[in-house]
Amino acid sequence: MPKVKTNSSAKKRFKVTATGKITHQKSFRRHLLTKKSKKRKRAMNVDGEVHKTNIHFVKRLLRLK
Predict the structure, then answer these.
(1) Phi, psi of 55 (to 5 degrees)
(2) Over the stretch 31-51, which tens digit does the pLDDT of each residue have?
(3) Closest Cα partner for 27 from 48, 6, 12?
(4) Global model pTM greater than 0.70
(5) DSSP secondary-structure letter at 52?
């Protein structure tokens, strides 16, 4: 029986917290930052939480379910 592999792109993009929530990095933070306000850039610095409609799919990619 072959091993079940975790999706490589998903394990780089998502992190599971101690309470079981799945977090991700916010988008639009890589370049073209001069036009964005400080407030907007600070908000993008905080990890986002995966929406409840996508949790089932992300857990399947990470082999948590």
Answers:
(1) -60, -45
(2) 999 999 999 999 999 999 999
(3) 48
(4) yes
(5) T
